[in-house]
Give the backbone structure.
Amino acid sequence: MPWWLTRQNIVFAFIGLAILWGIVGTVRELTALQAKRRAQPYAFGGEIFAGIKGATGSEKYLGYLTDRDINNDKVAMRFTQAQFTLAPLILDFNNPNHRLLILDFQDLKQAVALAEKMQLRLLKRSPQGLLFAERPGL
């Protein structure tokens, strides 16, 4: 039997092939990820508000109700991204005195309870938990 056909060399060959297969798979995944990054080089959190823009009609102001602390940088950034996404609409922070309202609550149950208390009519709900509602009386 030739020296390269020993059991140890066969095992090393299989291990080498497995490693090579893993490297090829990793390179494929990284190449696909890099292609996605070129298409959208950054993530914009305001995209969750984009579905509201087409449903506002001729409104110029929207109420933005939340239970989040605006002094928290992430919350302030979320509100700013909403304002940027919905521009030229103006978001009025925690002011319910508008016909159209965005409810951005940490707990969806609290948002639904507030909507029921204010007798709001739900227009849209995003997968991220945002509620877009109308106050029929205004």
Q: What stands out?
A: The chain has a mean pLDDT of 87. The chain has four helices and five strands. Residues 46-134 form one domain.
